[in-house]
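Can anyone check this?
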Amino acid sequence: MTLRLYNTLTRREQVFIPINKKEVGMYTCGPTVYWYQHIGNLRSYVFSDILKRVLIFNGYNVKHVINITDVGHLTSDADEGEDKIEKAALREHKTAKEITNYYFEIFEKDLKKLNILEPNIWCKATEHIKEQIELIKKLEEKGYTYETSDGIYFDTSKLKDYGKLALLNIENLQAGKRIEIGDKKNKTDFALWKFSEMPGKRQQEWKSPWGIGFPGWHIECSAMSMKYLGETFDIHTGGEDHIPVHHTNEIAQSEAATGKKFVNYWVHGAFLNFNNEKMSKSTGGILTLSELNNKGYSPMIYRYFLLTAKYRSQLNFTFENLDNAKNTYERLKRTISSLLENNEKSKNADDKRINEIYLKKFEEAINDDLDMPKALQVLWELIKNEHANGKIGTIAKMDEVFGLDLLKQEKVSAIPSEIMELVNQREEARKNKHFQRADTLRAKIKLLGYKIDDTNEGVRVSKI
């Protein structure tokens, strides 16, 4: 089978050809760990997990790197505003390290709940300051940098193909509207190193050849990806919002420093929309995985929901859509459970066989730019075909890509819907700071024979 992927850099589907025959280097832009990751953020990691699983399914050894941004990401996503980590530390009266460790641990747990395969390497920006400084020095030696009152900047005008990933029209971008650019020479120039306004005040700052400060957001990904995957590697993934700025700047600084192509395949996932707008922390209305779970939607239901759309298509989140996915997933699990029971009763070897006809259809779907809706359709066709053999073995093989625990036998939670409704009412009361009503609802739930535990991962409900 030949894997085809849509490459943002070329704006077309291409046959995937790795640099090394059976080895694939893959880098995924990780989170800025200053707050909980919402379900929109998590869509990006499910998509990259599917890509990784498809590569493994095709026989490749994947070296997967995910970065953790624990310094340098400013509130504007560019070069203005406060550092998100420093701001969170002040808000929560904690150290920056406490903030980043806490939110990273929750992020890791969310990935495990979603059956997302762990990367070979987690790399934190704060643990790679030396590599980032060395990369900036290399850019300085080649004449790509200049100093302003607040930092060291990359001069984008010195790179002829700057903006090629996003197809930026620099002239129109520059002339489009008046924007305060401070000491920057060009609107598209970006910070490589930011000076501390008041050295000693920031929790996270380091000495450098240019003064005490901290790295820019973009430089960390270039420095860390090239350290672990080489100056040119196979695949870089991330959300589509990274295309115009973050990934564009990664390419610029990396290729300016090395004189080589940075990445061969740029693969981007689309947004999860909420009320037809991008789900984001800044717009509000976000949901975490734990909040979904508290409302009766397991992580596997959410994963199934995401697989019903192609990764490059924007997906609109509504509870009606999620309910449809829940009903379909639970019906799928019940059907497979019956297959397992019948197979056990008949004591045949069906679970060891593979249905090559359906597996081939499945492979064609997943290798067609990760067409998961089509792959799910093939799964349902197999299950519904009364004359098909090798169902269990083939489902097991397909689930190596789906990651949906399709053959996992599990007891369904016996928490009644009326109890969950009271739990949801209590959560709403707490959210609106109606604490007396929340306590009343908790007491009512207890009288009905159930207890509530408020944990860092959300509310847990269990029978007394």
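Reply from J.R.: I decoded it. DSSP finds 15 helices and 16 strands in the chain.
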